[in-house]
Amino acid sequence: MAYQRYHGVQTRIVRIFNTYGPRMRINDGRAIPTFISQALRGEDVTVFGAGKQTRSVCYVDDLIEGIFRLLLSDVSEPMNIGNQTEITMLELAKEVIHLTGSKSKVVFKALPEDDPKIRQPDVSRAKKLLQWEARVDRKEGLKKTIEYFRVAMGLEGKG
Predict the structure, then answer these.
(1) How far is CA 97 from its chain centroid?
(2) Which residue in 19, 117, 148, 151 is deepest, having the highest Cβ count within 10 Å?
(3) pTM
């Protein structure tokens, strides 16, 4: 916003929330790549704390559509782009295990002090001003992401 005001140019500011999809780095440290790679290897899937903290995960195709609509708009204030549907980390881990067909078990580790309890964007402005909302079903997005990981990990045709 400061750059926009100082230089008098048009800008668009997007606030991205927990995006996932194919082409993620296997070892990037975020929950979905970690859960998928652990499950595909048949390792224990690591959940922090009791897994009650929630996240809202947005499939990459929905994110791109939201950014594109923002780019074509006249909206210059920051815009949240993400999925409002929450899931606990424990539920997400179990969903990934199920979708991979893995026999992995969930294990729990100490919850980091700075781990947010809730991570859910308010996308009401995106709905109103851009006529945008996330549409890709999480399970469908996870299936596509898992298939990408199978190939990237050299496990295609397994599971």
Answers:
(1) 17
(2) 19
(3) 0.91
